[in-house]
Amino acid sequence: MDGGTLYSIGELARRTGLTVKTIRFYSDRGIVTPTDRTPAGYRRYGPDAVARLALVRTLRELGLGLDAIRRVTDRERTLGQVAAEHAAALDVQIGILRLQRAVLTTAARRDPTFEEMERMHQLATLSEAERRRLVDEFLDVVFGGRSGGTGHAAVRRTMTPELPDNPTEEQVAAWVELAELSLDPEFRVAVRNLVADHVPDPPESSANPPRPDVVAVTRELVGTAVQSGLSPESPQADPVVATLTAGCALALGHPDDAPLHGRLLQRLETANDPRRDRYFDLLAVINGWPAPEPLAPVIDWSVKALRIRTARHGNSIHPA
Checking phi first, is residue 253 left (phi over 0); if not, alpha (psi -120 to 50) or beta? Predict the structure, then answer.
């Protein structure tokens, strides 16, 4: 093509697929400028206008604004610099859209009230610092002012959600539900009771170590029986129950007697709260951890087995 060839707006429109109105608009904004004008005042454009308009069309389809495009065409900024800036802006927009979609998806499942919808939106849009304050306040209540000690710190870490910088919609929805759960006064009391039975006060030391978690002991000793489908009412469950009470007695340093059996049953009944499993399910989603095994089936089985044998033998689990 002859480098001296000039095109009218109509010819540019045919070559680029853009409308005459659009090309005139870009020309008025200084993004593509005429090389010359006819004696009648009509604009004429050089061959580079075709390539420039193709670039403009591509950048517009990618969502760049006209000001950013003009800086590229005027060589004020490189194409790579503007692309990086726009990609960063898109990341922010995508994050906002992800939050919005997560809230709307959660709302669609719940059919919330106006007040509940507003709370969900507020929780989803908290800043990192605001989320941290909410979580710390919940854990401060749960741990009842206990401080210090490696056991305390470790348990607290296992209960701390850490929403990533670019969460998925599933993680956002999990965060909203977990935050709502952590604000529930009844749930706070229930979790505080669980922690109080496990974390000593004053803080643990070599002379005052953290108490063994009887729920963990129960899961270890009863899990196989539950998985096998053994009925807690069955006589074949008697050895499992005997192993359970003996294991908890050893862990707690108490005789395997009626007071220990009563304490074990009370402890498991306290822990038998489906909201606990739900909290740790949500926590795993937020933190990207493997899904935890549910405790409810093991605790349900154990509580039922202990109650049956308590009723059968009086205060003790085992016959005299």
Answer: left
